[in-house]
Amino acid sequence: MIGFLKGRLAVKQPPSLMVDVNGVGYELEAPMSTFYGLPAVGEPVALFTHLVVREDAHVLFGFGTDGERRLFRSLIKISGVGPKIALGILSGASVEDFLRIVEAEDVTMLTRIPGIGRKTSERIIIEMRGSVQKLAASGLGQGALGDGQVGEGRSAAGAALPPTPQSEAFSALIALGYKPPEVTRLLKSADEPGLSTTDIIRRALKSAVKT
After folding, report:
1. What does the pLDDT read at residue 42?
2. What are the DSSP calls for 163-196, one per residue?
3. Which residue of 8, 32, 49, 73 shows the fewest CB atoms closer than 10 Å?
């Protein structure tokens, strides 16, 4: 089992990234909560990881904190919640926000995340209700790796022939499960010159959970 990776950020294209560890490139998928804090391409980075083994592929997921990873692992144990939905939850709400949603039994908020219907939302709240206090007490939102840890919201500079931030944000939201017409609407709420890809996605996701 791969527990964490430390290396240099080689590619950053939400929701996928690549970490160069001594000349070996590890491809990962990560929630937007992790992407918001990634350093620039070429800079040192350290991520907690979780490996999902499927019949057709081995998929490695990366997280900026151990709290994010533990919440991810708790979510994928719930019937009807796979890695994609778990990533969507972590992308649409911080760990702390998710705990508050469960405590408040806010079913409607969860149903605004792609792939989560009312029944699944209710199941998540019921099954997570008993573990919320335990997870919160253990510092669920904490636990970043040192020595090349995730940075604070720097943009992905230095990639060769990068697409525009708007097109990257569009692709990322599609990968998170949003439909093209909905993505177009969400991106209009984040239409401001000079924003980075992660800033556009952050604004779009905030708009999604408020509507």
Report:
1. 95
2. PPHHHHHHHHHHHTT--HHHHHHHHHTT--TT--
3. 73
